[in-house]
């Protein structure tokens, strides 16, 4: 395997001291996923990574990045000793970015960062070596870790950048130095840390502070806060491309058609008509796919190949993945569909997910209930600030709710929605997800379509896991 870092290179990048000569083929912060040959970074988070250095070395780590020699580690152990581990990881990421010739894309937004990053990975497949984080590594350690892992031969790098509080995005964008920065949307997420949605927009727009000279800003043009984003991009000296559904946008969707396992859209990119498809239902996926095509063009990749690749794209688990569960191995007609969107939630993404559920067609006459149903299991939306109760209750008024048969609510905040729902739509309300997970066998019947969505902290993924155990999975192949 091609070396990623030598001891000398890593020491020069971080200003640290290597105790021995070593070569690393990867970088890891977790002994559970560490591969032999990785440089183990002893970050202090929930636990102090120094407590796991001996274990990492025993599992084959090439060396460990530490601020001290941990107890139980031999004097001749391969270490890179620095003053402070997190700044050293940032320095390693900066060095990884500086030596790379890759075209770099940075993605942020209140909704859709991870799915858009994965769309880009799919779109660029076959056009050169691609580097992107395997998970949502988008914070103060995730971005430098992704950059520290950047192979020298990568042609494209896709960096996801997130935030919880003001002032987080700009330093990470300056570290990534993207050639193209994309903002998927701005919505009411993390409101407890901001005065209003305009404050969120200004924070998202600070991604343009890191753009390389002459860089491209790809901006959702359908938002009330679009002018804030465009003004920030212009102030950063960026070229600007807008995308969405509005008539005046550079890249615009003109028609969207939802099927049970795909979304097809007609669009115009400048003056070029396009027909695009993704292998999952959802208007928002079609709109973001158009933004992805704008990014592809902006980094000089082949847009036609990207269009073909996108036709096979499906979201990752927890991000809107739709799958079929067969309840009876003998009679495979006894099945229902699960939409797993259990990783994140705010009012905007809830509305999009409920729209997708409302557009889906259940199957009648298969199960104990004669008619197939659209069922939603909704967990708390977190970090919404003082108006959180009103924002939860307002979900009851969404047009999509008229086509949904039953809504189960999980968490103290979702009690506001439960109270606001018409009686005929009210399912269960429970304080925590474990209670509803234990009754998963009562939630769905053959022919139903079940959406599970909530913030990660609501733990509705437990309900997803329990529902999956009701049958065997048959993933949609588009």
UniProtKB/TrEMBL annotation:
Protein name (record): UDP-N-acetylmuramoyl-tripeptide--D-alanyl-D-alanine ligase
Organism of provenance: Mesobaculum littorinae
Tagged with keyword Nucleotide-binding: yes
A GO MF label: UDP-N-acetylmuramoylalanyl-D-glutamyl-2,6-diaminopimelate-D-alanyl-D-alanine ligase activity
Similarity annotation: Belongs to the MurCDEF family. MurF subfamily.
Family annotation (Pfam families): Mur_ligase (PF01225), Mur_ligase_C (PF02875), Mur_ligase_M (PF08245)
Residues covered by the Mur ligase C-terminal domain: 336-455
Mur ligase central domain residues: 107-296
Family matches, as PANTHER family: UDP-N-ACETYLMURAMOYL-TRIPEPTIDE--D-ALANYL-D-ALANINE LIGASE (PTHR43024:SF1)
Any single GO CC term annotated in Swiss-Prot or TrEMBL for this entry: cytoplasm
Enzyme Commission (EC) number: 6.3.2.10
UniProt cross-references to InterPro entries, sorted A to Z: Mur-like_cat_sf, Mur_ligase_C, Mur_ligase_C_dom_sf, Mur_ligase_cen, Mur_ligase_N, MurCDEF_CellWall_CoF430Synth, MurE/MurF_N, UDP-N-AcMur_synth
Physiological role: Involved in cell wall formation. Catalyzes the final step in the synthesis of UDP-N-acetylmuramoyl-pentapeptide, the precursor of murein.
Mur ligase N-terminal catalytic domain: residues covered: 25-88
């Amino acid at each position: 395997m091609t070396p990623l870092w030598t001891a000398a290179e890593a020491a020069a990048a971080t200003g640290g001291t290597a105790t021995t000569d070593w070569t690393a083929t990867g970088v890891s912060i977790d002994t559970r996923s560490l591969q032999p040959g990785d440089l183990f970074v002893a970050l202090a988070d929930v636990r102090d990574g120094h407590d796991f250095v001996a274990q990492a070395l025993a599992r084959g780590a090439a060396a460990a990045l530490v601020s001290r020699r941990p107890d139980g580690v031999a004097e001749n152990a391969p270490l890179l000793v620095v003053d402070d581990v997190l700044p050293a990881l940032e320095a390693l990421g900066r060095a990884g970015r500086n030596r790379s010739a890759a075209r770099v894309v940075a993605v942020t937004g209140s909704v859709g960062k991870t799915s858009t990053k994965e769309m880009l990975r799919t779109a660029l497949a076959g056009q050169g070596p691609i580097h992107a984080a395997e998970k949502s590594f988008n914070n103060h350690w995730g971005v430098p870790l992704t950059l520290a892992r950047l192979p020298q031969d990568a042609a494209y790098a896709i960096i996801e950048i997130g935030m919880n509080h003001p002032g987080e995005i700009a330093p990470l964008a300056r570290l990534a130095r993207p050639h193209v920065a994309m903002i998927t949307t701005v919505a009411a997420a993390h409101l407890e840390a901001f005065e209003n949605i305009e404050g969120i927009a200004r924070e998202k727009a600070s991604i343009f502070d890191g753009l390389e000279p002459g860089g491209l800003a790809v901006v959702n043009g359908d938002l009330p806060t679009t002018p804030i984003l465009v003004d920030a991009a212009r102030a950063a000296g960026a070229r600007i491309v807008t995308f969405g559904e509005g008539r005046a946008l550079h890249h615009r969707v003109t028609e969207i058609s939802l099927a049970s396992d795909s979304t097809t859209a007609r669009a115009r990119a400048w003056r070029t008509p396009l027909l695009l498809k993704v292998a999952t239902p959802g208007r928002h996926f079609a709109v973001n796919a158009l933004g992805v095509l704008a990014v592809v063009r902006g980094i000089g990749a082949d847009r036609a190949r990207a269009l073909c690749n996108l036709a096979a794209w499906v979201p990752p688990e927890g991000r809107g993945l739709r799958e079929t569960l067969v309840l009876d191995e003998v009679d495979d007609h006894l099945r229902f569909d699960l939409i797993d969107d259990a990783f994140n939630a705010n009012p905007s993404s809830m509305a999009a997910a409920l729209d997708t559920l409302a557009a889906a067609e259940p199957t009648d006459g298969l199960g104990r209930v004669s008619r197939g149903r659209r069922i939603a299991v909704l967990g708390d939306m977190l970090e919404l600030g003082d108006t959180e109760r009103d924002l939860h209750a307002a979900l009851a008024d969404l047009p999509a709710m008229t086509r949904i048969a039953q809504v189960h609510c999980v968490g103290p905040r979702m009690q506001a929605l439960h109270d606001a729902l018409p009686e005929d739509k009210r399912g269960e309300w429970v304080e925590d997800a474990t209670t509803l997970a234990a009754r998963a066998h009562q939630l769905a019947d053959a022919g139903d379509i079940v959406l599970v969505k909530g913030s990660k902290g609501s733990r509705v993924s437990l309900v997803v896991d329990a529902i999956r155990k009701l049958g065997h999975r048959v993933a949609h192949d588009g």
